[in-house]
Amino acid sequence: MFKNPKRVFLLLVLLTAFLVSIDIPNTLPFFGSLKTRLGLDLSGGSRVVLSADMTNIAESERVSALESAREVIDRRINFFGVSEPNVQTARSGQDYRIIVEMPGVTNTQEAIATIGQTARLDFREFTQVPQASGAALTIPTLETTKSVGISGSDLKKATLAFSSQTGEPEVAIEFTAKGATTFADVTTRLVGRPLAIFLDDFPVTWPTVKTAIMDGQAVISGGFKQEQSRQLAIQLNAGALPVPVAVIEQRAVGATLGADSVAKSIQAGVIGLSIVAVFMIAKYGRLGILADSALVLYGLLTLALYRLIPVTLTLPGITGFLLSIGMAVDSNILIFERFGEEKRSGKPWYIAIESAFGKAWDSIRDANVTTILTCIVLYNPGNWQFLPTSGLVRGFALTLLLGVLISLFTGIVVTRTLIRVLYKEKS
Predict the structure, then answer these.
(1) pLDDT digits (tens, 9 = 90+) for 241-286
(2) Which architecture characterizes domain 5-39+257-422 according to CATH?
(3) Reduced to 3 states, what is the DSSP secondary structure of residue 99?
(4) Residues 171/177, Cβ–Cβ less than 8 Å
(5) C-alpha distances in angstroms, 195 versus 137, 187, 205, 223, 235?
(6) Rounded alpha-carbon distances, angstroms, from residue 49 to 70, 78, 120, 197
(7) CA gap 303, 318 in Å, rounded
(8) Is the pTM of this model over 0.85?
(9) CATH for 121-240?
């Protein structure tokens, strides 16, 4: 099928129509609300700085405890639906901090409520047999319960799940290795009795232990609605901080670049791209028009992916996008120059163009592979501390990486198909 240029051309037309339907409106029947997400520097948001209390943490474990706290906070914010937060750690001497930036969240109090401050999680047993009140057990209090030695640092994660038997919403919890051992001892001792879970000295739930749990994985059920289970999972994750944290700075952040600066950046990009498009037409004529057409499809596909993934755009991210457009044009220039050389050697134009694509591919591949490797290093998927961890750097790397991969598709497949179907020369 893909060896037939006309069929590929038809697929590209359909792809273009689909991409336009994603890029122009903000809603689609199967994708819901679609919009371009802007970073803190473009849209504003909230910035909260937390100080981690390492008093009770051994010196050798403080760095890992800080990183664990960062991961918990990042997971908690994502669970609440905040788009692409930037959560970083900072250390200066004995001062350990977590910096949280949340695009689009302008209410700092809402941000702090999402993050939580101390969120102390504590599993407690009743000190006496609880009395039934109607169909439910008496609400536990600190006075009627005692701690069993399981805290937030022992909980690995809590997630919304659904019962395989009844399909009802429930909460699946998983403990760390240390927590699993303690939890096994506690559940063995409390079979048939309730185990209360407190968050910041307030009872969240008190399910009855039905059987001893030895593998560190359990579920909390009890006729919950889906939203109740989701909220409970959020509360349990909120307590999984390995160290107490306190808010030391909170502020709403305006768009640092401002609407005027953003408009000028876009204007500069449009002017640059227009110059490139005019140059391609002036230099290569009809081939330049087809290359510009492929560039339009490149832009539509890139924006669609930004919305579908989604990618949060910052100004460095926009820079990466514009840079990748230049690389996409560069591929076409290599192909067209090779095409001219092949024709000057006496080959018919239709053989020369196919030969140009084949021979230019080696140079295009090598140049783009080098850029792809650089993007991977800058994006730092393993979150290694000796590589960049800044959200702005990662945003630039991600948009450039996507752009290079898409440019390979448009520069080779799209441009080649347009030439095969729409371009002809006199033999």
Answers:
(1) 667 788 888 887 776 665 666 677 778 778 878 888 899 999 999 9
(2) Up-down Bundle (1.20)
(3) strand
(4) no
(5) 11, 8, 8, 17, 16
(6) 12, 18, 19, 28
(7) 11
(8) no
(9) 3.30.1360.200
